[in-house]
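Good day; I would like, with your permission, to put a structural problem before you. I would ask you to consider whether the tokens describe a fold that such a sequence might reasonably adopt. The full record is reproduced below for your convenience:
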Amino acid sequence: MEACPVPLPDNNPELIAWVQSILAKNALLEERLRLLLHKQFGASSEKTSPDQQELFNEAEQDQPEQPEPDPEENVTVAEHTRQKKGRKPLPKDLSRAREEHDIRDDEKNCSGCGSQLHRIGEEVTEQLDIIPAKIRVIQNVRFKYGCRSCEEGIKTAKLPAQPIPGSIATPGLLAFIATSKYVDGVPLYRQEKFILARLGVDIARATTSLWMVRCGDLVQPLINLMRDKLLEAPLIHCDETVTQVLNEEGKAARSQSYMWVQVAEPVKNQKIILFDYAPSRSGSVPMKLLDGFRGYLQTDGYEGYAAIGRKSGVISQGCWAHARRKFDEAIKGQKDKNKTGKSHMGLSYIRKLYQIEHGIKESPPDERKRVRQEQSLPVLQKLRQWLDKSLLQVPPKTLLGKALYYLNNQWEKLIRYCDEGYLRMDNNLAENAIRPFVVGRKAWLFSNSTDGAKASANLYSLVETAKACGLEPCHYLKTVFNYLPRAESIADIEQLLPWNQKPV
């Protein structure tokens, strides 16, 4: 806290206390203002500047009982391989069209002796071409048969089951529209006004909106099977973000709803990402979504997950990325950017833990668990000792105080990643999974109805899981829309699960 610029009278303790409280509040507001300005105009990276990474002189600590431990001691940094600059080669799986270029016949004589030249090889240069989307009409011709003798018993060939019976939309068109919105972030009104209109067809946004709702209903059996597999996973990552639904029963038009995401730790390469719409952020939502789950549940520090964390068989796990972010914010909010202290010290301990993880990220679970027990636990023990001492020295309302208290309150959940080798330090899987929805939300802004929000959740689940399994989402959706209406058994539906499909 800064000193008062004006001398205060010694005989008025109430005035002194009042001025000191004002100065303390002003310092907190200035700290938050600096952080907000950095978020608005500064770099978004959480890395500290290079000249601060090795400095740990805690100037604010007047009488340390013992020297601070150096969290950077005995750090083994993985070898860095600089990537070569230049153009990347074109994918080998793309089709090639050979266009041959030859010299003129009158140039095929040697300029030295006049003899005829013969071909000695060729030089191939590749360019990338694209064929613009074409739209066409599929004519379903059904042959009819009748009896010439009695002119009764006319039989007509059946039309194959369609994703939307009676609609003009084929599986290919539905997949194209869904991919454009849920993968490319192109709102339906832009598809209507620009893409489809440019291709020469007039399809109203109300029609494509209805198609997406019907597609969301169509794929529900697939979503149900994916949820069954999700609940069998030993570790699930969860996160949530806001969304807006205009015509939501019992809520104002501008009130916030939420999209929840759950990501299963892959088992037998079954990568699963599920989105779910809910009108609230209540703790009852994850209780319902994860009913029957037994295992580790990794989330951020939101209290809405506390209820499910108390269920028998569910073990709550914290996120080190959130703990690290709070120390980074404390650094960005401090007045003197060149001053190093507790914020840098806490960040350096966490960096040390991440460096250990970086060295074992390709190791099998048993090896990861062994290294964590041998190397990470001692660092965590030193961090705990430093945290206990720092909690007594830092005001809790400052950015650094909030970082320390978050670390303290989440401690038991944060250190659980050392229990098993398949656990992760942070919840980045869920945060990365929900990012495509956040990016798309900036384009289409809202859903008109709860049916539309639920359909969006189902279709986001399919395309994001397909991408995680290495599939091209448009081709996968076309396969689903084509064969799911014809499925006659659970086995037929299981064949359409993303991990049962082969990449094209």
Summary: The first strand starts at residue 144 and ends at 145. The two ends are 62 Å apart (CA to CA).
